[in-house]
Amino acid sequence: MKLSALDVGIVVTYLLAVIVLGLVLKKRASQDKEAYLLGGKKLPWYLLGLSNASDMFDISGTMWMVSLAFVYGFKSLWIPWLWPVFNQVFMMMYLSVWLRRSNVTTGAEWIGTRFGTGPGVTASHTIVVVFALLSCLGFLAYGFVGLGKFVEIFLPYDSVAEYLPFDVKPAYVPHFYGSVFTAVAVFYAILGGMTSIVVGDVLKYAIMTVSAFVIAGIAIVHMQGHYLPVPHGWFDPFFGWTLHDLDWTDIFDEVNEKISSDGFSLFGIFFALMTFKGILASLAGPAPNYDMQKVLSARSPRDAAKMSGFVSVVLLPVRYAMVTGFAVLALLYFDQLGLKTGDSIDFEKILPAAILQFVPAGLLGLLLAGLLAAFMGTFAGTLNAAQAYLVNDIFLKYLKPDAGNRQVAWMNYGAGILVAGLGIWMGFYARDVNSILQWIVSALYGGYVAANVLKWHWWRFNAGGFFWGMLAGIVPALILPVVFPDTLELYFFPVLFGLSLIGCVAGSLLTPPTDERTLNEFYRTVRPWGFWKPVRERVQADDPGFRPNRGAWRDTLNVAIGVAAQCCLTLLPMYAITGMYRHLAVVGGILFACSLILKKTWWDKLPAEKEEILEFS
User: In whole angstroms, what is the distance from residue 407 CA to residue 402 CA?
Assistant: First the structure.
């Protein structure tokens, strides 16, 4: 075993604490459906923001980002746009407000507020539940694989095998560790619901913040008097059509193979596709996972917007302080990390190997507790979202609408165990963290985007268009990666988007429009901008005092400024740790200017607490 008794004690104490947390909050969570799934919509926006940021600060994602920073340097700023990371900016500026005004429990339930009732709505509701569960299962498998690879570094199987009543094959050691720690996450998430998850996430965020800045400090100390062995383009966030300035020949030759296998060599084309896909995905609003559930848990639309804005502020500087710190240490002492497996290097093991090499006892236990918490928080948040769809959108909607609180509670427990088991099963068949991530954010979301952009912005889009659009995208998303296994999933996106868009438009125009009453109520309540002219005219005819949303251009400007500010928040710790202080000052100045503008164009324009006096300018 490579951990000291102190480190093991800290980790065990944390695991016991989250189990106790679930037991303590069990009674509160079991009061009713809303208390369990949304924390009763009573949680403050800043706690929800910390929790959401904490859920995004996961082991698998951090391992992936450390490997990106090691290989691509400052250009790694752009690659998380695959998520896309800037969707939080779109949500902050207007989409969280629109979503929270709907006042529903899940994204599938939202379908009724937009399309009303009927066979088409039932089909649309079903396809959203299917997508949500596929997405949640994908993220659970993604976290499971990353956790297993992470823990294996610290607990070599040989050191624990003698205590086990069974033998585990070497290929399945990461899956064994993933299963053990997943069981703890399932326990506290299932018992305590959303409140348990949020409180646990805030604790985790505090641990991760301390750890991140200590790691950054260690990296800064080790940088003194040393130069990083990197190509000259490593320090430049800008790029051309190819990564010609990022040639690792005669430095670490294996890194060139990594760039080629990632499919990022033609970086200009990759970036263009990624940005195109990212903007459309952001316009679609949050996917039906833990992010959406946090928005729906906010006290008001105003708080939902604040929560989404707070996520980037508290997440990016802290996370990139840790990511850059570990990447710098790994570059300085690469030969000491032992990353080779046979003839290849597993770049996803840079993070755990660097932790083991450079983090002192005591702090190592704290950091491990934080990273395990990162996994469990993300796993628990995703699990909670999946439970919401199974319980609210299948059990209560179709099977037992009059179920009592006790029945709902037991159904939540059963749904949680079922979903966790399926996520683990999927994890056994995944190649690595990056392969799952690429499938989720590029292929699967390719089938989601078109329908979910149109649902906000086009009045004629109806339940038939939603169902056929989603179906036309999701089915190919499941098939294409199997037929073309060596193709980067991002390159499927234009095809998937095109097929889905055809399904959306054809399905809408070949079926009757949504009934006027449903459209009028949705438009009056949510107040979206876009192609809503016939509906707007009807609403204004009924209520001459109604003021439509004229904020499209302001929201667009705010998104552009917000994305620039988000990039600055990412670059600040990268420049600080590598000692590029002039660049740090420039980026800090740009961030300050963006903040002043957004104070006037966003913060001061947020909706009032009472929607009756909400105005758009």
Answer: 10
Indicate the angle between helix axes 363-390 and 119-154, nearest 10 degrees: 160
Per the confidence metrics, is the pTM higher than 0.90?
Answer: no
Measure CA of the first residue to CA of the last residue in the chain; give whole Å: 62
User: Can you spell out the DSSP letters for 310-357?
Assistant: HHHHHHHHHHHHHHHHHHHHHHHTGGGS--EETTEE-GGGHHHHHHHH
Q: What is the CA radius of gyration of the chain?
A: 24
Q: State the Cα–Cα distance between residues 393 and 401, nearest whole angstrom.
A: 10
Q: Is 72 exposed, middle or buried (0-12, 13-18, 19+ CB in 10 A)?
A: buried
Cα separation, 255 vs 328, in Å, equals 15
Q: Phi, psi at residue 390, to the nearest 5°?
A: -65, -45
The per-residue pLDDT for range 404-450, each reduced to its tens digit, is: 777 877 787 787 788 777 777 766 666 555 566 666 666 677 778 89
DSSP bridge pairs for 344:
341
Residues in the chain: 617
Token readout for 119 is 């066979």
Three-state DSSP class for 531? Answer: strand
**Mind giving me the DSSP string for 474-493?**
HHHHHHHHHHSTTS-GGGGH
Tokens coding 183: 């069981």
Name every residue whose Cβ is closer than 8 Å to that of residue 593 and which is 6 or more positions away in sequence.
Answer: none
Tokens 């189990």 belong to 19
What letters, b where the CB count within 10 A reaches 16 and e where it falls short, cover 207-216?
Answer: bbbebbbbbb
Q: Could you give the C-alpha distances from 40 to 72, 155, 296, in angstroms and in order?
A: 43, 40, 10
